[in-house]
Amino acid sequence: MSSNQQVAVITGAARGIGLTIAQRFHAEGYHAIIIDRDEKVMQLCKTLLSGNDRYSFFLCDVSDPVQVKATFDKIISQFSAINALVNNAGIAIFKPADEVTFEDWSAVMSTNLNGTFLCSQACFQALRQAKGSIVNIASISGMRASTLRIAYGTSKAAVMHLTKQQAVEYGNQGVRVNAVAPGPVETDMAKLVHSADIRTAYRDTIPLARYGSKEEIANLVYFLCSAEANYINGQIIAADGGFDAAGIGLPSLRV
User: Cβ distance 213 to 191 under 8 Å?
Assistant: First the structure.
């Protein structure tokens, strides 16, 4: 690797928004390091991206501190300076609040919150070496409460505050930290689980009247890690077509 090669690490990046983020960094000349815990999906990802030596792949469950340490030790042994860390890995369990078990709650918190904390800690010295940047992927569910998301929404709200805590302390050492909170995004998973009624309801509620694209999220993440965003730190940016801004406004009351 060239000594001036920039490096981006993206967790949960073997598919979906994470993969698109990795591809965005790669298109800008970065060496993109893809972390994911799903071996089967990772193999498909490797096949998709085969033939290019500016990708690296690491299997790791970010909720496991032992795996995180071992993985980042390997990464940093190859790349001592990391320019960008994108904490994208996350899971969701959608159930009514009174049906969520402690095991459900713990699984969501362990990946979404603990994983973000662990990866940031493990990568920090390499980020400081490069005066790099962290982007944590939160969610509009951490800003607006809704049904079936008591664990997921709470975990993402916690990620947002973790972002601000990190921004204050890491910023003193030259590492910026921000978060992106996507609204509904057109992913393969959304296509599978969002019924026609859900899609219509979202479109009626979102002022831009559409889902976001994976590329739009990736563009924002890349911007926040770029030199153009050098004075942006500790911010939570909703990429949601105005969904959060619409608040309790009813579609039937719009002009």
Answer: no
